[in-house]
Amino acid sequence: MATAPRERRRAILRSLSPTEVLSVNALSRLTGVSVITVRRDLAELARDGRVVRVHGGALRAPRRGSLRPVALRRDEDVEAKRVLARATAAMIEDGESVIVDSGTTCELVAEELAGRAIRALCLSLGAATALASVPGATVTVAGGLVDPESLSLFSTEAVDAVRRFRADVAVLSTCSVSVADGLTVVESDDAAVKRAIMTSSARALLPTAPRKISRTHAYWFGELADLDLLLTTNDIDPSVLAELREAGLAVAVHEI
Question: Which of 1, 75, 98, 233 shows the greatest Cβ crowding within 10 Å of its Cβ?
Fold first, then answer.
């Protein structure tokens, strides 16, 4: 049984899955050390971007350069995404101009905004379809090539369209949020679009499930300070929530 810190952390990493949460109590039994020691190990591994801490346990962090297929991501955290979508849409007022980023959560936000009297620039065909399917919103799609899997727009034409648009609010998506590394995504083109979105928006909202927090991916696009509000759910690890707030980030926690 591993007891030295380095060996113990290796054992923890070997036992973790990227999709199934392993509890702190189970890791304590596995390593033969106290729950407090396991939590310290997880905090250290999370700072290195190697694990994702969630309430009561942890997941193995994905590789920084890997992106899960859209079909799989649509099935992840469905209840949390719907709660966050409703909460995010409630923060947008009629008459506002809005940039809706790509991503599965942003598509759900667009569904919640359908029929509202807003002017929207969408970075995915999915979000644009959800908004335009009900009369009320004025919807524009950023130009350029469409990613065939996600139906997202990441091209230079999309960046140019975002730069020409002035938004009251942006609804952002991200692959990961980290106190140490800020906001990161897998693809450089996606990062360029998101940087343009934040520059063109008076305020930035980021609805995200806890599994994306304390992770890091390959391409940086912003600091936590660039966000006006991060919305997440109450299954976030309390220590992670405390770290975010200590870093100065406003976080709204919603119950699922």
Answer: 98
Positive or negative: CA dihedral 25, 30, 36, 39: negative
Cα distance between residue 28 and residue 79, in whole Å: 29
Between the alpha carbon of residue 157 and those of residues 68, 193, 237, 241, the distances in Å are: 25, 10, 39, 37
* Nearest residue to 176 via CA among 43, 78, 72, 62: 62
The amino acid present at 10, given as its one-letter code, is R
CATH architecture, domain 70-254: 3-Layer(aba) Sandwich (3.40)
**Do 5-60 and 70-254 come out as alike in CATH topology?**
no
46 or 183, which is more confident: 183
92 CB-near residues (< 8 Å, 6+ apart): 98, 113, 116, 118, 169, 171
**Alpha-carbon distance 175 to 218, whole Å?**
10
Query: For domain 5-60, which architecture applies?
Result: Orthogonal Bundle (1.10)
pLDDT one-digit tens code per residue, 37-75: 988 888 888 877 778 787 788 888 765 544 555 544 555
Distance CA 197, CA 176 (A): 17
Give the range among 112-126, 143-157, 184-198, 234-248 with minimum mean pLDDT: 143-157
> Which residues make beta-bridge pairs with 229?
205
- What pTM, to 2 d.p., does this model score? 0.75
Place of tokens 């938004």: 167
